[in-house]
Amino acid sequence: MIPRSLGGKKIAILVENLFIPEEIDYYKKRFEELRATVHFVSRLWGQPNVRFVSDSWEDEETRQTLEVQHDFQDIDVNDYAAVIMAANYTSVRLRYFEPPVGSPISAEQVRTSPAVQFYAKAIANPRIIKGALCHGLWLITPMPELLKGRRIICHEVVLADILNTGAIYVPSPSGVVVDGDLVTGRSKHEVEPFVEAITEQIHQVNSATNRFLLKRTTPVSAIKRAS
Q: What is the pTM of this model?
């Protein structure tokens, strides 16, 4: 059952240019309804804020902008209940890394992208729910071992790349697949069930944590009496 409130928990959403307006608007609306704090985060290149533009495939006149004030290099990923990689080509743009001056580019350097490192840190913490919609898993393909054996769904455009990491594709009728702390969705059209699945997983992690803390603080004699 989806909880009515996330109780002020923090959600980080990775964005860049070419974001999908409807997706971003839904995150704002739904997480506000759930009383969560949403931080849109990106690489700000030393600036106090950066304004990103949406994709313009449908209508140039309706192109939207999104001002981001949080650089993921300046925040602690462990402060967040969920980290979501936005859809579209935002993940490709965030994989950018700086090749060393005067030296050839090596394959290993693809792992040094700050955004890849940030998402990898989130994956390392099972208490953080990771979300990736549509093309989102492209962000972490530089570290294929992190997706190996994970059950996922994604847009068919990136499916070959994701399969090459050793992930397991699940053609879910709902367009959303939950694999523990990893929630994936096929496209922007599944953003609503995608958010609800992330919310449910946050709730489950919170419940498990509360049970663990209660067990630690309950005297042994009380546990024995209860059993």
A: 0.90
Helix (H, G, I), strand (E, B) or coil at 148: coil
**Measured between alpha carbons, how far is 154 from 181 in angstroms, rounded to an integer?**
16
Burial class from Cβ neighbours inside 10 Å (0-12, 13-18, 19+) for residue 66 reads: buried
Enumerate the H helices of the chain as residue ranges.
Answer: 21-33, 90-94, 114-124, 159-163, 191-217, 220-226
Q: What is the dihedral of CA 53, 177, 112, 109, to 10 degrees?
A: -110
Could you give the domains of the chain?
Answer: 10-201 (3.40.50.880)
Instruction: Please tell me the number of Cα atoms within 13 Å of 208 on its side-chain side.
Output: 11
> CA–CA separation, 27 vs 109, rounded Å?
32
d(CA 136, CA 186): 10
Angle between the 191-217 and 21-33 helix axes, to the nearest 10 degrees? 40
Residue 191 DSSP one-character state: H
Reading the block at residue 110, the tokens are 């693809």
Q: Is the pLDDT of residue 59 over 70?
A: no
